Amino acid sequence: MKKLLYLFLVSCFTLSISAQEELVYQKPPKEILELADFERSPSLMMDSKRTKMIFQYRNTYKTLADLSEQEIRLAGLRINPKTNIASTTTYLNNLKYKNFNDVEAKQIEGLPENARISNMSWSPDETKIAFTNTTQKGVELWYIDVAIGKAIKLTEDNLNANMGNPYTWFRDNNSLLIRVLPKDKAALIDAKEAVPTGPTISISEKGEKAQNRTYQDLLQNVTDEANFEALATSELYKVDLTGKTTLWKEKAIYSGEIFSPDGNYILISTIKRPFSYIVPLGRFPSETNIYDLDGKLISKFNERPLLEVIPKGFMSTYTGKRSISWRSDQPATLYWAEALDGGDQEKQVPNRDEIFQLAAPFTGQPTSLVKTINRYAGILWGNENVAVLYDNWWNTRNTKTYLFNPSNSKQEPIVISDRNYQDVYSDPGNFDTKRNQYGRNVLNIDGEKAYLIGDGYTEKGQFPFVDEFDLKTKVSKRLYQSNYTDKKLDIISINDAKRGEYLIRLQSPIEYPNYFILNTKKRIAPIPVTHFDNPFKSIANVYKEVIKYKRPDGVELTGTLYLPAGYDMQKKEKLPMVMWAYPTEYKDKSSAGQNTTNPNEFIYPYYGSPIYWVTRGYAILDDAAFPIVGEGKSEPNDTFIEQLVANAKAAIDAVDELGYVDRNRVAVGGHSYGAFMTANLLTHSDLFAAGIARSGAYNRSLTPFGFQAEERNYWEAPEVYNTMSPFMHADKMKHPLLLIHGGDDNNPGTHTMQSERYFNALKGLGAPARLVILPKESHGYAAKESVLHLLWEQDQWLEKYVKNKK
Fold this sequence. Notes:
Elements: H1 2-18, H2 30-36, E1 43-46, E2 52-57, H3 64-67, E3 72-74, E4 77-80, E5 85-86, E6 94-99, E7 106-107, E8 117-122, E9 128-134, E10 139-145, E11 150-153, E12 167-169, E13 175-180, H4 222-232, E14 234-240, E15 245-252, E16 254-259, E17 265-271, E18 286-292, E19 297-304, E20 322-326, E21 333-339, E22 353-359, E23 367-372, E24 375-381, E25 387-393, E26 398-404, E27 414-420, E28 430-431, E29 433-435, E30 441-443, E31 449-454, E32 457-458, E33 461-462, E34 465-470, E35 476-481, E36 488-496, E37 501-508, E38 511-519, E39 527-528, E40 543-550, E41 556-563, E42 575-581, E43 584-586, H5 589-592, E44 619-624, E45 627-629, H6 640-658, E46 661-671, H7 673-684, E47 690-694, H8 718-724, E48 737-742, H9 753-764, E49 769-774, H10 784-803
Parallel strand pairs: 42-44, 42-46, 43-45, 46-47, 47-48, 48-49
Antiparallel strand pairs: 1-2, 2-6, 3-4, 4-5, 6-7, 8-9, 9-10, 10-11, 12-13, 13-14, 14-15, 16-17, 17-18, 18-19, 20-21, 21-22, 22-23, 24-25, 25-26, 26-27, 28-31, 29-30, 31-34, 32-33, 34-35, 36-37, 37-38, 38-39, 40-41, 41-44
Helix pairs in contact: 6-7
């Protein structure tokens, strides 16, 4: 008997071992590797007048060594406790500069060795740029004198960037307010070694419904509370451009410091106890006060309690002051919103929010500015008599734009746009802004004229535009509309409306995006400002087309089709195909069917793209439209599976009708909600040979208080949650599924456990599946080793189960 038991245990152990594959990091085939292993072009930082350009360089990928640095996860933050900056920070490693008329960019001298640069910002007069540099021990503050192109170090590596950017400029352009680690900073407690002094207890009071999303990295116990307080606490110092520092404010958990436009006051927010174990730090108690330039308290402006309990719904909010900020067009005037419906979207009221203001010295009574019909969504200030306000309402996808007079609250605001914000064809564009005397962005107003820049999506394609908006008549006049049919044009800014001069970006499928000056009044070609080269020349000759097709219910769909270079369009060989998509919820079929894909967009095979496989002989249908529509009182997710399958079948039918695809060799893939889509399609249809699902969630009972665009909780719509969960239907899975997940996913709802539990269910039921956990990776993948291995895994899977399907 003992011998039989021994043999049984040995056989179980052997089966367990054989179920794991010992594998080092791999690299994809040569065709894919030469696309994935490239040098990234710099990003740009420009001044408001568009005369100075900073070229920002960074590595294409991080390394596993970068991701393996020490990390603590607290209250929604991921912190490197050694350097005291977010462990997820992406660093720049070099900076160059040039004037717009210069041909070549020049190297900025004096940068730190082995630079790890972040948090760059212009001084108020735009003559200098501050930035942080992260050393092996901490965070330093530097600045660049743009006139001479030289970087100068200001502080030691003792700044506290755990709560975000650790500095802000004073209005004098010669000094900065910085967050510094306290000299008596509390030592961190090793959670593994800490001896508990009691149990961890959370309380639910009767009637208080705390229906919060499934957040990651929350505090869990008193040790976490102590460590969070130690890491988040700073002292405020003033440092001038000679490096002289003086203590400005005692230690606290500072979460925001904003100077008034005139620079005479500063609004400071701090986080207080009690902390929470069910919501992140953004909903901890906070206090917002006003101080003068010497750090003297002027006004205790606002106290906000712990926000664990908020009425259910995307449009619900908390009561009291929120969205507190300075008016951009006034020296020192605060404004904020307050809910008129108790923050509860279920209450029926004529106005949801009211906007108030209070000017320095902040001793009078606040005055009402305007009331909104929907939930307040922001203000773009112009001058004493003109401002633009936005509101929106998720449930109807409605957004309104108001024109109002800040100096006369009795004058009714005028709604100048009232539309479905998912209806891109009706989008009037965004108002252009300019930098005012305070260094703040305000409406670009010329007399009685303002200007709108629009994306220009239409049924016939994308044609960006500039409109002149008459503030008196409320009528728009078209000044310019792109007529490019072979390139994609983006209007970045208006340099001079009267002269018809604009900063634009041009690209084509084989031309890397570059910046140009366009003058619409002169018949000359756009003048190039940058000269970035195409790093992906090996796919310059692939075929690209945006195809249009319909679902059986008439909803119009699109997808971007790629065919291998040299593909014989006459012979039409039947190719294997990879389809990549991401579902989007709509409240009407008309908006769902609108086309926002530009065929002239540059072909950029970023790490998550399926385009790599066009070099391996596959047809690719990328960004296939997957609208999920729920009109009227019905919700999109009520028929999620049916619409998902209908979208997929319509896409395959469309490519099949063109004659390009072997419909028995089609793969589907997606990331996050696209992974959720993939698992459902393999479960509820026989359209696909295999699938690739990355960083998804598969059991919706683990996100019981909503997910994606679903507002209802599990107990309100159990059929919807269960029907949509692939985990609940793992016994129906028959098609091979490659599951990939970051080992340290930080996205709400897509905990790594989701893939692990789903794989266990599939394996237990005999479904063909492979689970790949990428160590140290979050919701997106950053390390070069991880990305190259990811591409190898996907290639192996597609070759085995799709191209060479038996």
